Amino acid sequence: MRAWKGSHGSGRVSTARCSKRLWPWNAWAAIQRIGEKKGRKRSLLVDGRGVPLSLVVSGANVHDVKLLAATLDAIVIPRPEPTEQAVQNLCADAGYKGQPALQQVQARGYCPHIKQRREEAEAKRTQPDFKARRWVVERTHSWLNRFRKLLVSFEKTEESFVGLLALASALLCWRQTISIYG
Fold first, then answer.
1. Pairing mode, if any, of strands 40-46 and 52-59?
2. What's phi and psi for 175, nearest 5 deg?
3. CATH 3.30.750: does it fit domain 40-181?
């Protein structure tokens, strides 16, 4: 007797293409919009040592440029006025490239240094005295990710998440102060 092998056209109903059991489609279920992301995004402004000066939280679907003004305005310490002798520089990545971001940075008295990674790598290779500065913010994000409660946000309200971020930022400031003075 010959053993039947399931293939299309073998005469068996269960092997037909349309016989696969599909999940039932619910016409009343909410459909997720294209481009919508879940989660939260934090925007940081740090000094040269990586101490957080400003922290803004929003949804993950908000572009970085839209958070720039809020981040620059939310500095927790009084900022010294920029002068011609003491220019205040602002280093940012290519996400902040463009006329609106440039206008916001210059309106607050900063000298913008907005470069892509390859431009920074090229300058580092060709100019021996060039120092890359973007890694300071990335290091601070890494320090914040070491607080395991902040790595994946299970907080229901944004206020509680911001409170935990403020506590973690205060601990980072304390650790930097200890390394400077003690």
1. antiparallel
2. -65, -40
3. no
Amino acid of residue 87: V
Question: Residue 80 — φ and ψ, nearest 5°?
Answer: -70, 145
Which residue in this structure is represented by tokens 């907005």?
Answer: 114
| Positive or negative: CA dihedral 128, 134, 140, 144 | negative
**Do the strands 110-114 and 52-59 form a parallel or antiparallel pair, or are they unpaired?**
unpaired
Q: Is the dihedral of CA 159, 70, 114, 101 positive or negative?
A: positive
Return the domain boundaries, the chain.
Answer: 40-181
Residues β-bridged to residue 116: none
Measured distance CA(120)–CA(113) in Å, rounded: 10
CA distance 141 to 131: 20
Say yes or no to pLDDT of 10 above 90: no
Residue 44 CB partners (closer than 8 Å, separation 6+): 52, 54, 55, 71, 137, 140, 141
Q: What is the pLDDT of residues 130-170, one digit of tens each?
A: 777 778 888 898 999 999 888 887 788 888 889 999 999 99
Tokens (6 digits) for 33: 């919009």
